[in-house]
Protein: Flagellar hook-basal body complex protein FliE
Organism: Peptoanaerobacter stomatis
Amino acid sequence: MINRVSDIIPLNDIKIIKKEDTNKDINFSDFLKKAIYEANDAKKYQEELTQKLISGELENLHELSIARGIANVQFNALSEGISKIVDAYKEISRIQI
């Protein structure tokens, strides 16, 4: 059976994503803290879903797989960022004035 596209995706359900104001002054330490907390929250959510799967409360394995992938990507990006920060600090500390 062929459905019309308008039947599958109602246009009134689509959310419009607005660009955030990029002119905000963001403190670097606040940015780093936010990234750490977001990575930690993603990991906690993944662990929570894992426990629900073990106990039988979670029926959708795809949700756990997606949460695990998101947590891994955030953690890897965070660790790469911290590694780059440490490398930059070492390079700056070698500069003689």
The mean pLDDT is 83. The radius of gyration is 21 Å. The chain has one domain: 26-94. The first helix runs from residue 5 to 8.
